[in-house]
Amino acid sequence: MFPMESISEKKLNITRMILDVQDDSILNEIEHLLSEAETVAYTSEGKPLTRSQYSNHLEETGRKVQEGEKTYSPDEVKKYILNRNS
Fold first, then answer.
1. Is the pLDDT of residue 85 over 80?
2. Phi, psi (5° rounding) for residue 49?
3. Alpha helix segments (H runs only) across 38-73
4. Which of 9, 27, 52, 77 satisfies CB 3.0 to 4.6 Å to 5 for a cystine?
5. Contact in structure between 49 and 59 (CB atoms under 8 Å)
6. Hey, which residues does 50 pair with through a beta bridge?
7. What is the number of alpha carbons within 13 Å of residue 9 lying toward its C-beta?
8. Contacts of 9 (CB under 8 A, 6+ apart)
Protein backbone atom coordinates (compact mmCIF):
# COMPACT_ATOMS: atom_id res chain seq x y z
CA MET A 1 0.00 0.00 0.00
CA PHE A 2 2.68 2.48 1.05
CA PRO A 3 6.09 1.87 -0.52
CA MET A 4 9.05 1.39 1.80
CA GLU A 5 7.09 1.63 5.04
CA SER A 6 8.49 0.03 8.17
CA ILE A 7 6.68 -2.68 10.10
CA SER A 8 5.69 -0.10 12.74
CA GLU A 9 4.28 2.23 10.10
CA LYS A 10 2.43 -0.63 8.47
CA LYS A 11 0.87 -1.64 11.81
CA LEU A 12 -0.25 1.94 12.46
CA ASN A 13 -1.76 2.24 8.98
CA ILE A 14 -3.62 -1.06 9.36
CA THR A 15 -4.83 -0.03 12.83
CA ARG A 16 -6.19 3.24 11.42
CA MET A 17 -7.99 1.36 8.65
CA ILE A 18 -9.50 -1.12 11.13
CA LEU A 19 -10.71 1.72 13.35
CA ASP A 20 -12.58 3.17 10.37
CA VAL A 21 -14.34 -0.10 9.48
CA GLN A 22 -18.07 -0.06 10.22
CA ASP A 23 -19.00 -3.39 8.62
CA ASP A 24 -19.20 -6.17 11.22
CA SER A 25 -18.58 -8.88 8.61
CA ILE A 26 -15.25 -7.28 7.68
CA LEU A 27 -14.26 -7.11 11.33
CA ASN A 28 -15.20 -10.79 11.69
CA GLU A 29 -12.98 -11.65 8.73
CA ILE A 30 -10.07 -9.69 10.23
CA GLU A 31 -10.59 -11.42 13.56
CA HIS A 32 -10.63 -14.83 11.86
CA LEU A 33 -7.50 -14.03 9.86
CA LEU A 34 -5.62 -12.89 12.96
CA SER A 35 -6.71 -15.92 14.98
CA GLU A 36 -5.41 -18.21 12.22
CA ALA A 37 -2.03 -16.46 12.40
CA GLU A 38 -1.84 -16.73 16.20
CA THR A 39 0.99 -18.86 17.61
CA VAL A 40 -0.48 -21.91 19.37
CA ALA A 41 2.62 -24.07 19.83
CA TYR A 42 6.38 -24.24 19.34
CA THR A 43 8.59 -26.90 17.80
CA SER A 44 11.36 -28.50 19.85
CA GLU A 45 13.69 -26.03 18.10
CA GLY A 46 11.58 -23.10 19.34
CA LYS A 47 9.92 -22.26 16.00
CA PRO A 48 6.44 -20.78 16.50
CA LEU A 49 3.54 -22.62 14.85
CA THR A 50 0.13 -21.30 13.85
CA ARG A 51 -2.97 -23.46 14.30
CA SER A 52 -2.77 -24.83 10.74
CA GLN A 53 1.01 -25.35 10.93
CA TYR A 54 0.58 -27.19 14.24
CA SER A 55 -2.11 -29.40 12.75
CA ASN A 56 0.16 -30.19 9.78
CA HIS A 57 3.06 -30.86 12.17
CA LEU A 58 0.95 -33.35 14.16
CA GLU A 59 -0.21 -35.10 11.00
CA GLU A 60 3.36 -35.35 9.72
CA THR A 61 4.60 -36.68 13.07
CA GLY A 62 1.80 -39.27 13.15
CA ARG A 63 2.63 -40.36 9.60
CA LYS A 64 6.32 -40.77 10.47
CA VAL A 65 5.48 -42.87 13.54
CA GLN A 66 3.18 -45.10 11.47
CA GLU A 67 5.98 -45.52 8.93
CA GLY A 68 8.21 -46.84 11.71
CA GLU A 69 10.29 -43.82 12.68
CA LYS A 70 11.96 -44.26 16.06
CA THR A 71 10.11 -42.79 19.03
CA TYR A 72 11.24 -42.36 22.62
CA SER A 73 9.44 -42.96 25.89
CA PRO A 74 9.41 -40.25 28.55
CA ASP A 75 11.87 -42.31 30.61
CA GLU A 76 14.27 -42.57 27.66
CA VAL A 77 14.13 -38.80 27.14
CA LYS A 78 14.68 -38.12 30.83
CA LYS A 79 17.66 -40.51 30.93
CA TYR A 80 19.15 -38.89 27.81
CA ILE A 81 18.81 -35.39 29.25
CA LEU A 82 20.28 -36.35 32.62
CA ASN A 83 23.21 -38.23 31.04
CA ARG A 84 24.18 -35.63 28.44
CA ASN A 85 25.30 -33.21 31.13
CA SER A 86 27.58 -35.83 32.77
1. no
2. -125, 135
3. 51-66
4. 9
5. no
6. 39
7. 6
8. 2
Q: 23 — phi, psi (to 5°)?
A: -85, 115
CA distance 22 to 70: 54
Q: Look up residue 46 and give its DSSP letter.
A: -
Average pLDDT, the chain: 90
HSE (side-chain half, CA atoms, 13 Å) at 45: 2
Q: How far is 40 from 34, CA to CA, in rounded Å?
A: 12
Per DSSP, what are the bridge partners of residue 5?
none
For the stretch 15-32, pLDDT in tens is 999 999 999 999 999 999
Tens digit of pLDDT for each residue in 37-54? 899 999 889 999 998 999
- State the DSSP code for 38: S
The answer to whether the predicted template modeling score (pTM) of the entire model surpasses 0.85 is: no
Could you tell me if 56 and 63 are in contact, meaning their C-beta atoms sit under 8 angstroms apart? no
